[in-house]
Fold these 2 entries.
Entry 1:
Amino acid sequence: PRLFIDAPLSASAAIPLAREDAHYLINVMRRGEGDVVRVFNGRDGEWSAVIAHASRKGAGLTVADQTRPQQGVPDLWLMFAPVRRSKTELIVEKATELGAAVIAPVVTERTQSDRIKFERLQAITKEAAEQTERLDLPELRTSEKLAAVLDNWPDDRLLIFCDESGDEADAAWGGARGRGQPMAAALAGAGDRPAAILIGPEGGFSPAERDRLRSLQHVVPVTLGPRILRAETAAIAALTIWQSTCGDWR
Ligand code: SAM
């Protein structure tokens, strides 16, 4: 088992476990005193630890030695318009598993449900990071309006705009760019520039938002194929294409 410990790790001090972590180790993973656990905190890499004591009153770990800190995959952000709660949670969980460094809900004109349960989503990133054996937690941001995000867009970062529009985009781009390039082609051309993926809400982006996005220097409209995908499918597909195209761990 592997635990995210939100505290500095050191070989000297024993670490008391939070209740939910003690429950997970003892009752879910059926571990006990003397068993080895791996712990990480997103700063110190990964350590192996031994369960020093475990009882109904709680558990504590003695940290042994540090193993290799994992190389981070390149810095990718996932920006998405919040959708129905269960689907938003799915997007956050899969973005954590697929290596997003930042997960940023953005409120667009057609976003239905702009309220997100931040603490719940944060807990999901922690569980997903433990399960997927990441050595860091993604940074989860609070919701922000797309317009404000674009006003402060960092110059060096590519914005991969997953645009499902068809004829409208063709007309606007004079057919020059069509639906936008297939995402893998767009990424191949981007080299190892930091990137962000942008996914719209159930109702898609408004024409005004599309115009605004097209006006940005470093926006690359991409298509994820000829069919209209649900937002959560599009997020998972785009992250997977990014990971298989750009992940420097290959
Ligand atoms: N406007 C769409 C419609 O006409 O039904 C629905 C939007 S879709 C459910 C949600 C988001 O997923 C889109 O805004 C886009 O970001 C992404 N998406 C879905 N299918 C896509 C595709 N084939 N290519 C690129 N992005 C896609």
Entry 2:
Amino acid sequence: KVVCVTGASGYIASWIVKLLLQRGYTVKASVRDPDDPKKTKHLQRLHGASERLQLFKADLLQEGSFDVAIHGCDGVFHTASPFYHAVKDPQVELIDPAMKGTLNVLKSCSKSSSVKRVVVTSSMAAVVYNERSRTPDVVVDETWFSNPDVCRANKAWYMLSKTLAEEAAWNFAKDHAVDLVSINPAMVIGPLLQPTLNTSAELILNLINGSSTFPNATFGWVNVKDVAEAHIKAYELPSASGRYCLVESVLHCSEVVKIIKDLYPAVAVPGKPADDNPNVPLYQVSREKYKSLGLDYIPFEVSIKETIESLKEKGFA
Ligand code: NDP
């Protein structure tokens, strides 16, 4: 079968491409700049790529840009979306590419009669940012949606971009009878295939590169290999539907630092939080839907070790 992966050069997408090629799929991969070897070489080196990987140039903000890549595909994995926090103009840099880009991709999908299902990479950022309180006995699940007003009030622009993009995707799917599934991972860690540093791996790099403080923040964490597998199962299993929260564990960065110190006693980890704001909430996330895909999570300790080994191997650490 032929499938399309948007933003194929990215951290999560590269793993999706690798696993799809391993399973025998023909992959039409969209990248912004097919002539940049940093964005394509690691994909072209994947097993099966020389026979079954095709690269296409596409930009989220260009109308119809994805038509050619999506034409003739049975499934589409839409992962492309900017993920970084240091933005000057959130509307232009994050919200427009996330939201308009998602609609742009979905329009191409609905034009193409071959597309049977679209899997979009959303985020826990589109799940947990609302007025509901999170405490250790609260179990977050797929019925939770982030509230754009809460994101705006906190200037949480990336969270806003993912919330608006997912909302737009569900509305489009309803109006145009698109079979849509969303994957909502928390902070993704694990080995990097691409030669560049992505935002979630950079968070771990900052904990091992001599910084004096760690973020005073609690994150959910999940391994990139589990995230990629979940995307593929969500496409392959006819029974898959709706949203899938992907969180192996919820840990404050102070806990992450302790685990790194236990695994790597020689590493100088940061000793204190970046601020002393109180009330950083811990919470639980339901595993039921993820398990219904027939998958189990890679434990956090394994994921963090894989991340650090990969950062070292790539020369970042
Ligand atoms: P990367 O930064 O590695 O990948 C982002 C991809 O989006 C890149 O391929 C990038 O292309 C592409 N992209 C960005 N802007 C545009 C644009 N205007 N036109 C076309 N492509 C564009 O990040 P991740 O792999 O981490 O993120 C992939 C997806 O996963 C995103 O949707 C992100 O929101 C989501 N996600 C990530 C999490 C994480 O912790 N990593 C957690 C939850 C969700 P280029 O390489 O050319 O810049």
